[in-house]
């Protein structure tokens, strides 16, 4: 069931991190200000930082085990998806809150299908 290799997951991490940072301008809600704008930027920066420190193909400082990285992804994505209701901007226009929900939910799906270990460190099945 986990068919997304960590090498692909890592590329997605950096793309999503950059997209989250740019989201207020990409989706035209930068003028709304407050949590709607700050949350994706902070989570995008955070995603890039913890990706740099993850033990996978795209983590140059390989310190954080991939399963821990995946937990960070889930927690951050749940927070992102629920943030319109937690911080009260769910009543704004769709372009303000829907990106939070869609990106959060999409990252959760990606995590569920991502391999928990890079190929080079995954245990090899014993042959009989």
Automatic annotation (TrEMBL):
The taxonomy runs:
Bacteria, Bacillati, Actinomycetota, Actinomycetes, Micrococcales
**Recorded superkingdom:** Bacteria
Do the record's keywords include Membrane? yes
A Pfam family that this protein carries is SPW
Keywords of the record, alphabetical order, are: Membrane, Transmembrane, Transmembrane helix
* Protein name per Swiss-Prot or TrEMBL: SPW repeat-containing integral membrane domain-containing protein
Q: Where is the SPW repeat-containing integral membrane domain?
A: 9-110
Which InterPro entries does the record associate with it? SPW
Instruction: Establish whether keyword Transmembrane is in the entry.
Output: yes
Q: Which residues cross the membrane?
A: 12-31, 37-58, 70-90, 96-113
